[in-house]
Write a structure and sequence with these properties.
alpha/beta; 8-stranded parallel beta barrel; 42% helix
Length: 385
């Protein structure tokens, strides 16, 4: 299978699986426990149908919108994801360049393998930093100050990882950051020489937003679960979030909100946006899908705060359904991570081109010429077997 054979996001998944050692692929692809929530995140979009209009004069359409105060060419945001250098040697650099090419928001994680400063120099496009609150308060302050100096557009405080979900694929494979070769996985690394040589011979794996304060994850190999369980602050409260918002002073989003009550608290604390998200199904298995929760959250706080539906997006029509349900934008991580793992920047560029075409085609077939016309009356619910 070649990159030119990829015509949908699931095709990039197949190519990534063929090219990655299995512990690395399973880290991207896996989720918590029985992975029911991960599957539901995508399947939930099947619970509604689009109702198109015809004879609408769609020769010229406008797919752009404003997300968190910045113009976006599509109603799509590339969610921040960790340790991208493990998936392809280009890492976050590839995603940053592709996002700028398509005029999209994208984010980097506290656990990124490119520094805040490197990313700021790479692109003038809108940038989000995903903040994990560590027990080391000095590290939290240091990351916020670096984002301020680098003029990042937004901080997204991740609120759903006070402990790690049980990611059983990673437990079986022994995946760590940095990746390490184990007796159980050495054959898989040996039979993926392109990935292995890139990992061994190119620049050293590190987490440059963290290694000023901690060795874990950079020079000291650790599973993501162990990192979350030992390094992150489990005492976080709404007061913590308010203090971080004040310290940051810029556009502020809560990532991981799933309940109406928490959406209301986000409005009350003055957050600019929420990302309805269950961390890609990697935390609480059996939790609701973001799209399933979207309608009631929109009914409660729509118009008072920006709402991003995060997770499960595999098609352009998924983003259109989210907007019809009242979201300001849709977002996801695996929608570009599979492509990054498969072919670096070329893969991400092709994946975004496919999603762009799907959004444009979907809007034309629905008979809409701009995203403001994507409203609830264009959806019909139906039971999913």
């Amino acid at each position: 299978m070649k990159l030119s054979d990829c015509h949908k996001i699931d095709d990039f998944r197949k190519l990534a699986k063929a090219r990655l050692p299995f512990p690395v692929f399973d880290y991207i692809d896996g989720a918590a426990d029985d992975e029911l929530t991960k599957a539901r995140n995508t399947r939930s979009y099947d619970s509604v149908d689009l109702v198109p209009d015809v004879l609408a004069g769609v020769e010229e359409i406008d797919t752009s919108c404003t997300i968190l105060g910045r113009k976006s060419a599509l109603p799509l945001l590339l969610s921040p994801t960790a340790v991208q250098r493990a998936f392809h040697w280009q890492g976050e650099t590839a995603v940053a360049k592709a996002a700028e090419q398509f005029g999209l928001w994208f984010g980097i994680s506290s656990l990124a393998t490119r520094s805040i400063e490197e990313i700021a120099q790479l692109t003038s496009g809108p940038k989000m930093f995903q903040l994990y609150v560590h027990k080391d308060a000095g590290l939290n302050t240091h990351m916020i100050e670096r984002c301020q100096a680098a003029k990042f557009d937004c901080i997204a405080l991740t609120v759903d990882t006070i402990v790690s979900g049980k990611r059983e694929r990673c437990l079986r494979s022994g995946f760590t950051t940095p990746p390490r070769f184990t007796p159980a996985s050495i054959w898989s690394y040996a039979t993926r020489p392109r990935w292995t040589l890139d990992y061994v011979l190119r620049e050293k794996f590190r987490l440059p937003n963290l290694d000023t304060h901690v060795a874990e994850g950079s020079s000291k190999a650790l599973s993501i679960a162990d990192y979350f369980n030992t390094m992150l602050d489990t005492s976080m409260t709404w007061d913590t979030a308010a203090q971080i918002r004040e310290q940051w002073g810029g556009t502020f989003v809560l990532k991981g909100v799933m309940s109406v009550a928490d959406a209301r608290r986000a409005v009350d604390m003055g957050a600019d946006g929420i990302m309805i998200s269950n961390h890609g199904g990697r935390q609480l298995d059996g939790s609701r899908a973001p799209f399933d929760q979207l309608e009631e959250i929109v009914q409660a706080v729509g118009g008072e705060i920006e709402i991003i539906c995060d997770g499960g997006v595999r098609r352009g029509t998924h983003a259109l359904k989210a907007l019809c349900m009242g979201a300001n934008a849709a977002s996801g991580g695996r929608l570009y991570l599979y492509a990054l793992a498969a072919a670096g920047q070329d893969g991400v560029t092709r994946a975004l081109s496919i999603l762009k075409d799907e959004i444009e085609r979907g809007m034309k077939l629905m008979g809409v010429t701009n995203v403001e016309q994507l409203t609830k009356d264009r959806l019909r619910s139906r039971p999913v077997c």
